[in-house]
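Quiz preparation item.
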């Protein structure tokens, strides 16, 4: 028994060391990532379900590390948030997205609304809102072409600087979307939804939207759509992969969506070729 316990202890120590080592490696790699040009944005279309026209896109961060490995954002964003690197990385994301919009405009294309993901930590940085407005103004881009996707975690500090920054940005026309709706601190989010233009329904609800006998998930989806509509918000369903899901959501009153059915996140050049058209004269 003693022997087995010893092995178990060693096993846990190894497992813990692996987790710690991975964290430390990610942090060390991330410190260099911006300077080494290892970050890129991919773009995923958001569609109107009624006529399958483009309503905008979401910019999603991609990191290919020094050894050429793609590290998924779900692994490095939490590390970046806990060590503060999310601030310079988020700054890079905003600049890269705005530069891309400018490039599309210069190429004579109709610039779509672009959404970027913003962490509550970034929003709470002093000067976040004025710096972002300045970045838009310097490029001559209308504020309403930019959307920020924020998760329910922003409501954890209701009196905080993050919500103050959101209020300021919205008053100047920047669009706000509440991301992953329904997954987190929902009771707080329900109280705060009216601060947002768009509700993004998490894909966990979308996954079962077309399953037979899913009266419960249909009822939840219908309630979310009804609430959003009552507040005059747009609703975007995330993670639509099948025709039947799109059809079920449309029947429940959801007017737009995003997912592999319409296109996975793709490099800017592919997005441009597949989704963008020339600006009307
Ligand atoms: P998210 O904001 O909820 O982004 C949607 C995620 O769902 C993306 O994963 C996207 O590739 C994936 N997705 C889109 N359509 C489908 C579908 O039809 N089926 C399935 N199964 N998945 C789909 P990704 O790109 O791996 O990003 C993961 C998360 O990382 C994002 O979730 C977001 O929370 C975070 N993230 C990504 N880029 C940034 C960024 O620039 N800043 C911050 N703070 N977070 C980011
Ligand atoms: Ca998002
Ligand atoms: Ca989401
Ligand atoms: Ca998410």
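Solution:
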């Amino acid at each position: 028994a003693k022997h087995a316990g010893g092995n178990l202890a060693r096993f846990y120590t190894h497992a813990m060391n692996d987790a710690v080592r991975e964290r430390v490696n990610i942090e060390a790699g991330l410190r260099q990532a911006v300077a080494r040009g290892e970050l890129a944005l991919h773009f995923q279309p958001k569609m109107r379900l009624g006529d399958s026209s483009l309503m905008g896109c979401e910019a999603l961060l991609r990191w290919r590390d020094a050894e050429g490995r793609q590290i998924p954002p779900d692994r490095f964003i939490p590390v970046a948030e806990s060590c503060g690197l999310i601030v310079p990385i988020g700054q890079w994301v905003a600049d890269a997205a705005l530069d891309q919009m400018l490039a599309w405009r210069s190429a004579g294309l109709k610039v779509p609304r672009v959404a970027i993901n913003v962490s509550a930590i970034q929003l709470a940085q002093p000067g976040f809102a004025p710096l972002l407005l300045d970045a838009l103004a310097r490029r001559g881009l209308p504020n309403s072409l930019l959307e920020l996707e924020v998760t329910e975690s922003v409501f954890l500090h209701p009196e905080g600087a993050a919500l103050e920054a959101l209020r300021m940005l919205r008053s100047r026309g920047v669009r706000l979307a509440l991301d992953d709706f329904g997954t987190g601190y929902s009771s707080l989010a329900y109280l705060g939804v009216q601060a947002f233009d768009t509700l993004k329904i998490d894909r966990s609800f979308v996954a079962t939207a077309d399953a037979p006998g899913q009266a419960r998930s249909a009822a939840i989806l219908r309630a979310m759509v009804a609430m959003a509509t009552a507040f005059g918000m747009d609703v975007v369903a995330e993670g639509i992969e099948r025709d039947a899901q799109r059809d079920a959501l449309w029947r429940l009153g959801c007017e737009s969506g995003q997912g592999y059915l319409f296109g996975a996140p793709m490099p800017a050049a592919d997005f441009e070729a597949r989704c963008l058209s020339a600006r009307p004269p």
